[in-house]
Amino acid sequence: MTIDIASVPGNLEVLPWPAITGLAFGGDYNPEQWDESVWAQDVQLMQAAGVNLVSVGIFAWARLELEPGVFDFGWLDRILDLLHAGGIAVDLGTPTAAPPAWFYRAQPESWVVDADGRRLGPGSRGICCPSSPAYASAAARITTALADRYGDHPAVLMWHVHNEYGAPVSECHCDQSQIAFRAWLLDSYGTLDEINIAWGTSFWGQTYYHIDEIRTPAAAASVVNPAQQLDYRRFCDQQLRACYLRERDILRAHTPDKPVTTNFMATSCPTTDLWKWAPEVDVVANDHYLTAERGDRHVLLAMDADLTRSLAGGRPWMLMEHSTSAVNWQPRNVAKQPGEMTRNTLTHIARGADAGLFFQWRASRSGAEKFHSAMLPHAGTDSPQWHELVRLGASMRTLADVRGSTVKADVALLWDWESFWAQDLEWRPSVDLDHRERTTAFYTRLWQDHHTVDFAHPTADLSSYKLVIVPQMYLLDRAAAANLTTYVTGGGQLLVSYFSGVVNANDAVHPEGLSGPLGELLGISVQEFAPLAEHQQVMLNLLGHNVVGGAWTDRLLPTDPTTEIHGTFTDGPAAGSPALTRRPLGRGAAWYLATRLDIETLQHVTNPIYAAAGVPKNQIAAGLETVTRRTENGAFHFLINHNDHPVEAAVSGTDLLTGVDYPQSATVPAGQVMVMRQDF
Ligand code: GLA
Predict the structure, then answer these.
(1) Ligand 1 test: best mutation among 163, 262, 364, most atoms within 8 Å of CB?
(2) Is residue 360 reached through a cis peptide bond, with omega within 30 degrees of 0 on the bond before it?
(3) Torsion sign, CA atoms 290, 295, 301, 304
(4) CA 175, 179, 180, 184 torsion: positive or negative?
């Protein structure tokens, strides 16, 4: 293996936790679930495992505010003092994801109402109606009380607002939400006339004569106006963000020097537009859980980490939660294999995290999550799980110098929650259209070819990338198309997959037709969508290879004299129509692929584009994941062997985890991780 180390220094930025000198290691700690007599043991065991940061109080509202305005902070004082004495820093939670029973009893109008009109009450966890004034003031009161009391506590390093905004509920249809939705619409559009135009309400006689006639898109006889549904998604996202900002601003006013964050779910929460959230946190934090039954779960993990790093603008980020082994909420909660936890944590670190934290410290004996794995498992310390955890803690200490180093990618995939919201509405041309499937397919192709990938919003500056892939971007506005054109003209290679650029921000087909504003850039016109029947396949000739496509075809015409045809459907509903086109433009080229190819077959498309982009397919052993983090004067090469056999890697340096020097090349043992340090 050869690893190219650019001499350009990374964008160095050290995370704001001065008390921790290296990487952060720890997890959610819920001492309120336990008798105080175990706390001293907890701290001792945390020290033994190398824990230096725990998140405390995330669900403790009921134990902190016993009735409105009546607080019991004694127990939190004691545990924070104990943790501080033990040298363990605290990421202190605002507990607003779990309002106390007294709040639900006093404020029934704050209960969430779902799309079917059901009221979701107490006895679980999750936010109240995000538009509820009573919830807003109760959340502000507990946040202010915590900031007042603990802002100066030496254990408190940072703030953890709420928990996973968007889960388990992200929308509400109560009366207060109706009022807030109408206000949001008038604020966004100015007048009712503009709302009618934007939503195309002439269709199906939906014209509104008065703003009070508009309701949130709850259960209805048939499909609710898609533009209305899309705006409702935007509204819900903004209401949640307003909840976060309210708490963040209280905390910032009290402790301007302490970082504030909230835990995102980068690839797994469909309802929050994290491109809008990321600039609002002081450090990006993310939760990731494996899809345990999938053989490619480590690839999905890498994708999630790459998206998180991209949300952080390339700066280091925190892995706020992952699991030591099985979770408890999947259909079959497969336990991790020995070594898998270590590979998982270190993959997040490889891809830019400066913290590896878990849910949770000590396995709960009661409640809904008692079968979830934990750092301190039900089996206790005389268990292989605990021993692996202690080894991992030691590895994290050994990797202290990795902190602050950054990852550089030459390839970007576009990602846009607004487009996903629009595409996921009803009555699309085929149920086989799946932006997530396409994104994962392209990502997997790139992962197998050992390319490190960034994710980017369609309007982001793309000039640093050699290759940009648009996996399926149904909603794409004119500004994004212009941005992609600038990218190609400036020398970029752009690959656009089918069903991209179809509608504008109001889910209306662009006036140019089905290829929208991308048509001109691509030099094509999609005349008609020609989706396939279930399990139907089509043959196409692709750059001299006869291959099979599925799910989708387009009937399209080249529209520019420079458009080249590199693939043609040889049967199926689009027989004779181009399947792969390329239009050279400026110093770059724009490619279009009109069908779904499996990951293996995608090589026939990506290999020539890699060559054109100058990002050759790396000759590295299959199943060996390689990522490089750079500093101004060195690099850390992470080698993660997912195989059950050892592999050779042509990389030199000192393995930080074992201290062994490899002057020329290294053998990475089965299932193991090596981190080769290289100083320039
Ligand atoms: C989420 C939550 C945690 C816990 C874990 C379990 O990430 O934030 O509180 O419920 O899931 O996997």
Answers:
(1) 163
(2) yes
(3) negative
(4) positive
> Cα(142)–Cα(524) distance, rounded to whole angstroms?
57
Ligand 1 atom having least distance to the Cα of 263: 8
Residues with catalytic roles: 164, 321
* Pocket lining: 52 vs ligand 1, CB cutoff 6 Å: no
Tokens (6 digits) for 500: 């991209």
For ligand 1, is residue 289 a contact (CB within 6 Å)?
yes
Which residues, in sequence order, are CB contacts of 120 under 8 Å at separation 6+?
A: 111, 112, 113, 114, 126, 169
Measured CA to CA, the distance from residue 69 to residue 598 in angstroms comes to 58
pLDDT tens column, 488-510: 999 999 999 999 999 999 999 99
DSSP for 84-105? HHTT-EEEEEE-TTS--HHHHH
Ligand 1 centroid–CA 43 distance in Å is: 22
Would you say the pTM of this structure is higher than 0.90?
yes
Q: Atom 7 in ligand 1: which residue has the minimum CA distance?
A: 287
Q: Which residues in the chain show pLDDT less than 50? A: 1-15
Cα radius of gyration (the chain): 26
Tokens of 143: 């946040």
Q: What is the pLDDT of residue 14?
A: 44
Which letter does DSSP use for residue 395 in this model? H
- Written as six digits, the tokens of 227 are 């533009």
Q: Using a 6 Å cutoff on CB, does residue 160 contact ligand 1?
A: no
